[in-house]
Amino acid sequence: MIWTIVQEESPLPINQDVLWYKDAIIYQVHVRTFYDSNGDGIGDFQGLENKLGYLQQLGINAIWLMPFFPSPLRDDGYDIADYTAVHSSYGTLDDFRKLLDSAHSRGIRIIIEMVLNHTSDQHPWFQESRSSRDNPRRDWYVWSDTDNRYKGTRIIFLDTEKSNWAWDPISKSYYWHRFFSHQPDLNYDDPAVREQMWKVMSFWLEMGVDAFRLDAVPYLVEREGTNCENLPETHLILKDLRRRLDEQFPGRMLLAEANQWPADLRPYFGDGDEFHMAFHFPLMPRMFMGLKLEDRKPITEILQQTPEIPPSCQWSLFLRNHDELTLEMVTDMERDYMYDSYAEDKTMRLNLGIRRRLAPLLDNDRRRIELMNGMLMSLPGTPIIYYGDEIGMGDNINLGDRNGVRTPMQWSGGWNGGFSNAEPDRLYAPLIQNPVYGYPAVNVLAQVGSGHSLLHWMRRIIEVRRSTAVFGRGSIEFLHPANHRILAYIRRLGNEFVLVVNNLSGAAQAVELDLRRYKGNVPIEMFGKNIFPRVGDLPYLLTLGPYQFYWFRLRRI
Amino acid sequence: MRLAEETFLTDDFVRQLSNVGEVDILVGLPTHNNAKTIGSIVKTIQSGILRWFPRERAVIINADGGSRDGTPELVTGISIDDVRRGSDLHALRTLHSISTKYAPSPASQAALRTILSAAELLQAKACIVMSPESCSVEGEWISRLLQPIRNDGFDLVTPTYRRHKFEGLLITNLLYPMIRALYGLRIREPYAHEFGFSGRLASEFLSQNSWDDGAGGSGIELRFTLAAIRAGHPICQSFLGQKDHVEQRGSDLVPALRETVGPLFSALEPDFQVWSAVAGSQPLPTIGPDHEVLLDPVRVNRKRLRAMFSAGVAELTTVFQSILSPPTLAGLQKVAQSGEDDFEYSAELWVKTVYEFATSYHKSVINRDHIIQALAPLFRGRVLAFLIEHRNGSAEDVENAIESLCLEFERLKPYLLQMWKSRE
After folding, report:
1. Helix (H, G, I), strand (E, B) or coil at A330
2. Is the ipTM of this complex over 0.90?
3. Which one of A257, A274, A324, A390 is the catalytic residue?
4. What's the pLDDT tens digit per position in B129-172?
5. Which CATH number among 3.60.110.10, 3.10.350.10, 3.40.50.1220, 3.90.550.10 corresponds to the domain B11-158+191-248?
6. Is A215 a catalytic residue?
């Protein structure tokens, strides 16, 4: 068994700091994809629990679980049919409780999904709502006799949906949906809905869940004459949820999924009274863009446009996730460039994005993978690692929708990649089998046994990242060396300074850094602990190999 | 501070270049006290790059001859954000603008050498040089000069302009027809201050040109064009539109002749094997029209031109006896004695004059610079004749006259060869 080769760590107490999320390294995984403990071809809670030792060794301290609720699974579980139960394929509520406790005993928090905006059309609430116009739950969804309302609202899933309204033949009226037509939006103008959703959240919080990733939060409320996104009424609802959370479950966290520009995202933090964290969506494509352009401009530009957030709040950063690499938050010119650079094959494109994993996006170039992870770990925010990216898993663009990046975790080169004992035909999705990224070539077992593997490197960078709070909590000050291929910044927390220098170019570079403010400091390279020449009056000269990066602790000794 | 004795570029400039790194596009901007125009030109260049080449790695290299009016600071101080503001332009990349001083005095040779050196160090694929004096430069010029190099494999792109029928007479009456006749290529603007070229041509010229040949660095742009022709590089023309410029260069004729006719006559000697084998001429691939003519009335002091021509012919007779054949000199003296109404300096006589000057220059019958100076009054006579003949002429008439003159240069080329060889 694979996990027996992973040395078990001794139990760790959960950090009681209410700002724990600032120091977190989050691992995103779908239960279904990780490990199948009962041989039915589908990953489950028990399987995930069995693999906690692996995750603990990797160094992560929070797991973000994608939806595991009962669902017809027409949108990978984001179409929920029951908010207070678990999908039978993944186990039972008791299995989930057990996972929760085991994770906590290892110092790992659990973040779960909460899809506030919509339900599945199979949810009993919707079935009741559509059953008659007099049903008590009729107003739990947004109904209309015409499909002309809210005309100023964009369609998100352009590839599949033509309208945000869908005709319901049962109640003979239209219902509002911002995503797929089988996902009717809840009506947050109805107080009963707001109360019900808090009850749902309380259910999981009482069980011990540490945080929610709240899905699709900009779209909760609709108003005529607006684009129905980011409305003040939506913020009032979210603030009310936060108030209740703080009052009844202090130390728990809310993470916003709002694919918006930084200025539009800022209100989701409120005055520190709305979300604790929010994804920084516009940064991610610009990291890829900066790498391809070999130019720091896209990255520094978006971070300079990023407003200050309240001290208790935090950005959440990621390179890849379960969705396409979204290009909604880029200009048309940037989108064209990204498509041409990263998705020349049009089958790689989906909606306004690119449905690929990290390693294939970067041509499986270990140096670029390391550099991107280096930036992920050193820019201001809490990093999220998508399952499998720590070993450089590939994707399968021949699978529909975004399923190509949701294939089974590759644990070994053996039967089903060590994911399941089931017959291969019974797996929820086929394993990656191509010669470059297939499970015989890319798997945990092989990488555990290779000191130079990406997995070992990921463990090391996480370890170094966690060795100081400056990355999670510090400020950032960009340096502006004349060499535009160098992205350099100082992270500071109190008297602790870390200098980060990234070479975005595939060629060796020389750079002169203006470090006069840090004159007298000795740079200590954080991975090898080597001392570099003391900072003086002259520009500080560094040379970097292709895609190389340095993290220096600056010590005034 | 210099890197080493043999190094042309300063350490500081090399350091700036290393920060820029490899580029796809390089825009060279030679300047000397151009503060009046340079701001708008740099903004136009930047917007041209953003609009036409948003994905390419680009740099603006300012080679400044020691301006005292803040020109370099203007070049480097213009932010790309200024260009983007109020426009639909968006920059994907960093666009560097760097400046270096090449010498304490203005010299086009040093400026171009600086720009070519930068192009080589940065491995630029396509380059252009822009005049710092143009008032009418448009962003599209960047595209029109670069695209043929980027997309069509040309190594040199010379401009064509919309010009007044009496503008650029030195080009239309001497440089264009003579280069066409000798080298066989119909380059309308062989001496341009805006042109595009490949990195390959830049490197080749940088290594092959004699940068210390005592020519004082004059006419380097023309030498660049001739070098491209000589090496057989693909050349095309691209129409830029109207060119208005602030007059900064001295408008004296003699310096203009030194910058143009001097380098051309100088080139004939080493290029003899090339031009002596050429017969006829070929049109160049041209993007847009190869010329456009404006007909606005202009004031010309014909009396002064006439007086300068006649005085020159009379005062320089001894000099002309060394340079010109007796029939040609006699013809000129006859023209000098004619009245304004019957003043005619024919195409044939003008072509023979030019060819005999070129041959004398080759043989160094007298000091070469004196030969160039002596051509000045005769060129004025030719200009006067051209103005008189075409003062009411249409654009077509003027173009026909230029074409006839070109054909005359081509027809009399054996005459040049005969003199060249007989005087060997």
Report:
1. coil
2. no
3. A257
4. 999 988 888 999 999 999 999 999 999 999 999 888 888 899 99
5. 3.90.550.10
6. yes
